[in-house]
Amino acid sequence: MPTLEKRLEALEANTPHIPDRVTLVTFVKPGELDKEIQRICTALVADEGQQWIRESGETEQEFRERATREAPRNAYGASLLFGSSD
Questions:
Q1: Given this model, what pLDDT does residue 52 score?
Q2: Where are the alpha helices (DSSP H) in 14-59?
């Protein structure tokens, strides 16, 4: 019977690589569903990870694209970001 390490290596080797997979979770307050994102970070607590602040004149879509492009990826090419209107 293979060791646990070898079994894990085999599973990881067969895990599909999802290139450029970024998930953006956006937090909104009640009554502020239409408010645009002003800050995106890689951790729930902003000082624990990378953070982006929306620049003057930048559309929300441009801001999302910039953060997505610059976001660090894990070994599988994925990144989890959190956005807020604050």
A1: 96
A2: none
pLDDT tens per residue, range 27-59: 888 888 889 999 999 976 655 789 999 999 999
Top pLDDT among 55 and 75 is at: 55
| Cβ neighbours, 10 Å, residue 54 | 20
Query: Which residues, 6 or more positions from 57, have their beta carbon under 8 angstroms from its beta carbon?
Result: none
Note the maximum CA span of the chain.
61
Q: Are strands 39-41 and 21-27 parallel, antiparallel or unpaired?
A: unpaired
Burial class (CB in 10 A: 0-12, 13-18, 19+), 50: middle
